[in-house]
Design a protein that fits this description.
It contains eight helices and no strands.
């Protein structure tokens, strides 16, 4: 009886591409989460700066009003007379204190961008920054775990091809029956890139993995600089 040789199948190659595409999508989810986190940091820090500016700007007008009311009450011979004097004389004071509030508020908001209030800015933003760093570290850990997977640590396709568009196209070659093995699919992709304008531009200058590695490196340098 003649022994039949085992015929290689394409299932392993296709499974590899499916796993790669899944890892890429999870990595892109991390990138989107980073963007959301950065926007939330900006929103929350701006909110705290605005609140502090409003509180500082309100101190002087409130002080003026307290002094003004106390002076009117002390000068009046009766409560009714004091209230009448307060109503008449407060009309002009309202406009003046509102203007004063706005001027101080604008100046405070401008000062947030100055190096003169660097320490104050750090104190005001410290709780928000702490939450941000905690969540950012969690995203770094999540990203590193994905990048440690074989599809990134030991890739079977060129690094610049590890992108959702290119991997999806390689899978399309398998699903349409145009390719049965990874090498054939890669050959077809290179042919498409060489012969068509659209596919020649499909490979990005920077992949999601490149961006994540760079972002993690930047975060680590930032932490090292603050230690």
């Amino acid at each position: 009886m003649i022994a039949l040789a085992t015929v290689p199948t394409s299932s392993t190659d296709r499974d590899y591409l499916v796993a790669t595409l899944d890892a890429l999508r999870r990595l892109e989810d991390v990138g989107k989460a980073r963007g959301d986190l950065d926007r939330d940091l900006e929103r929350r820090t701006q909110h705290r700066r605005t609140l502090v500016s409003a509180l500082v700007a309100a101190v002087i007008p409130i002080g003026i009003w307290v002094f003004f009311v106390a002076a009117q009450v002390a000068a009046a011979r009766s409560l009714t007379e004091g209230l009448n004097m307060l109503a008449v004389r407060s009309i002009g004071l309202v406009g003046a204190t509102v203007l004063l509030f706005l001027v101080v508020y604008i100046i405070c908001n401008w000062l947030w961008h100055s190096t003169a209030v660097t320490r104050l800015r750090a104190v005001v933003e410290k709780p928000v920054r702490a939450d941000y760093l905690r969540l950012r570290d969690a995203l770094d850990v999540r990203s590193e775990a994905i990048l440690a997977e074989p599809v990134f640590a030991d890739p079977r396709i060129p690094a610049n091809f590890i992108h959702p568009h290119t991997v999806a196209l390689l899978l399309r070659f398998f699903d349409s029956g145009q390719a049965t093995f990874l090498d054939a699919a890669l050959y077809m992709l290179r042919q498409e890139m060489a012969n068509t304008v659209y596919y020649s531009q499909i490979v990005p200058a920077e992949t999601a993995a490149d961006r994540e590695r760079e972002r993690i490196a930047v975060n680590r340098r930032e932490i090292a600089d603050h230690d």
